Every structure is written in C-alpha cells, then in structure tokens.
TrEMBL record:
Residues 1-220 form the ABC transporter domain. GO terms for molecular function: ATP binding; ATP hydrolysis activity. Keywords: ATP-binding, Nucleotide-binding, Transport. InterPro entries: AAA+_ATPase, ABC_transporter-like_ATP-bd, ABC_transporter-like_CS, ABC_transporter_ATP-bind, P-loop_NTPase. It holds the Pfam family ABC_tran. PROSITE patterns: ABC_TRANSPORTER_1 (PS00211), ABC_TRANSPORTER_2 (PS50893). Belongs to the ABC transporter superfamily. This is ABC transporter ATP-binding protein. Gene3D superfamilies: P-loop containing nucleotide triphosphate hydrolases. It comes from Paracoccus siganidrum.
Length: 234
C-alpha cells in the first residue's frame, strides 16, 4: 500500500491559505494534524476525502483508497436511533450491518443502553460517540477524523481514544485536533499546519496509544504547546 499524498496549495476566494505543502500519510500509521483555528486543517481533510471545499487546490491527492470521514458535526439523522445511525453506512449501501461488530462497538463506546434512543435524547458527547461508532463501523483503509473527541469529558475521551486506536490498527489515519496531549498519545506522526506551511514534529517513543502520564507524552505535549504558542504570537 502506497502513502496517501496531498500536494499543492489551497485557495479560498482567491487567497492562499498557506504556501505549497506536501502532506504524506504513511500507510497503516496514525498522523495527527495540529494548527491554529482557521488555518485550513479541516479543508485538507475534506480534500483528501474528495469533498468540495468552496475553493480550489492547485495540486492533487494521490493514492486515495476508500475513505471513512468523521466530521466535526456528528451529522446524525434525527429519525434514526443510535443503533441505526451507527449502522448507516451499510444501510445506505443496501447491505446488512455486522450485528456482532455493531453490538461490540456500541458497548465499548458506552452506548449500549442508548441504542434505541434518537439523537434529540442524547447529550452532545453521546452524539459524538455515535458518530465515532458509525465511522469505526465503516472499516475503511483510510480514516479521517476531525476533532473526534472534542465534546467528551476527560475519562470518556481516554476511553474513546483507546477504542479508536484499537479498532484502527493497520489503518491509515489522519486526525485533526487542537489537543497536543491527544496527538502525543495517539500518533505515529505529528504535523503542524500554519500560515507559513507544514512541518513535522517529533513524536514520543513507543507504540500508541501511550499512557497519558508517560514522560515522553508529557514532554511532547509541552513541546507542541510551545510551538503553538509561538505561532500564535508570530
């Protein structure tokens, strides 16, 4: 399997978001993308997914396999239950969902007791977990995650990180996040996108998911916070 590569420059309303970049996603690895708000992280995610961006890419996306995308908005259908929303992909394709896999993911996401509820009866964090479960049900070789744990409390965030890391072993993952600790814990590779371009940052030793208290994770978190603070002050 070859790496997924996005190369070029993005323009919105005629304005370049950043200089020409080359974002490479090594196969089977988890890449995290950090950067200031509004710099274009979600735009890159949409480009890799093959979705419109309201602008243009002077470049190309290479080696894109079938994709599963979890956007910032959970996008749950209000007339479907938790279980039905989580199994939406197979339903739209006219296929039967893997019931055992669905039950396992819902249980591990803490949603088993909410399987028959509709989105209006769920909290924001629960809706985000349903969206994550739906993405994990897709079982695609390329998985794109846009701030997938942002609405969760600290305990549930760790649990969902572990769930995603376990189920996405061997997949190529790109996660947009504003949380340096999350990136340090989960990533094989960390990239920072700013108006000046794209850089690759050091990652902690050892395979992810790493313990939150791991000294390497804490050091990486501190270094990323420093970099982000420097960029904000520039």
């Amino acid at each position: 399997m070859r790496p997924v590569v996005l190369s070029g420059q993005v323009r919105i309303d005629g304005q370049a978001l950043f200089p020409p970049i080359r974002l490479e996603l090594p196969p089977g690895q988890w890449t995290s993308l950090l950067g200031p708000s509004g710099v274009g992280k979600s735009t890159l995610l949409r480009l890799i997914a093959g979705l419109p961006i309201g602008g243009s890419l002077a470049g190309r996306v290479e080696n894109r396999p079938p994709v599963a995308l979890m956007a910032q908005d959970p996008g749950l259908l209000p007339w479907l239950t938790t279980r039905q929303n989580a199994a939406l992909g197979p339903r739209l394709r006219g296929q039967a969902a893997d019931a055992a896999r669905l039950d396992s993911i819902l249980a591990r996401a803490g949603l088993a007791d909410h399987a028959a509820k509709y989105p209006a009866a769920l909290s924001g964090g629960q809706r985000q977990r349903v969206a994550l479960a739906r993405t994990l049900m897709e079982d695609r070789p390329l998985v794109l995650l846009d701030e997938p744990f942002s609405a969760l409390d600290a305990r549930m965030r760790l649990a969902m990180q572990d769930l995603a890391a376990g189920l996405l072993i061997g997949r190529t993952v790109l996660m947009v996040t504003h949380d340096p600790a999350e990136a340090a814990r989960l990533s094989d590779r960390i990239c920072l996108l700013t108006e000046a371009g794209l850089t690759t940052e050091p990652t902690p030793a050892g395979p992810p998911p790493r313990a939150p208290s791991d000294p390497g994770v804490l050091a990486c978190q501190g270094a990323l916070l420093t970099r982000l603070t420097q960029e904000a002050a520039a």
